[in-house]
UniProtKB/TrEMBL annotation:
Keywords: Phosphoprotein, Two-component regulatory system. GO terms for biological process: phosphorelay signal transduction system. Pfam families: Hpt. InterPro entries: AHP1-5/YPD1, HPT_dom_sf, Sig_transdc_His_kin_Hpt_dom. This is Hpt domain protein. Transmembrane segments: none annotated. It comes from Marinobacter nitratireducens. Coiled coil: none annotated. SUPFAM superfamilies: Histidine-containing phosphotransfer domain, HPT domain (SSF47226). The lineage of its organism: Bacteria, Pseudomonadati, Pseudomonadota, Gammaproteobacteria, Pseudomonadales.
Length: 115
């Protein structure tokens, strides 16, 4: 897997310019939606629902990349591919990696908002 940065500073700067006063709302929405997506991934993995796992990972990948979190997006891509391959044996490890990266990204994004 390519080692991508936690945050794409350029993408975030563009989002900040475009969103202006709504930037913080966007960040909070991403964080809250991501928590729901992680819960959805965990639920799908627990139930052995590879299709739902792939779809949730795909959705999470897109929102991560759009917000400027490329490494999180890459981890979601790995999960998406596993779901599409009907291979959830490593789902716990994938989820742990996604959750850890999400915590890192959340801390970094929250740090941007207190400036």
């Amino acid at each position: 897997m390519v080692d991508k940065p936690h945050l794409d500073e350029e993408a975030l700067a563009e989002l900040q310019d475009v969103m202006e006063d709504e930037f913080e709302v966007l960040i909070h929405t991403f964080i809250n939606d991501s928590r729901d997506r992680i819960a959805g991934l965990r639920h799908a993995a627990t139930n052995g629902d590879a299709d739902a796992f792939a779809k949730m990972a795909h959705s999470f990948k897109g929102s991560s990349i759009n917000i400027g979190a490329p490494h999180l997006g890459e981890l979601c891509l790995v999960a998406e591919k596993a779901g599409k391959a009907q291979s959830l044996e490593d789902s716990e490890s994938m989820l742990s990696n996604i959750e850890e990266e999400f915590r890192t990204v959340t801390d970094m994004l929250e740090g941007l908002m207190v400036r």
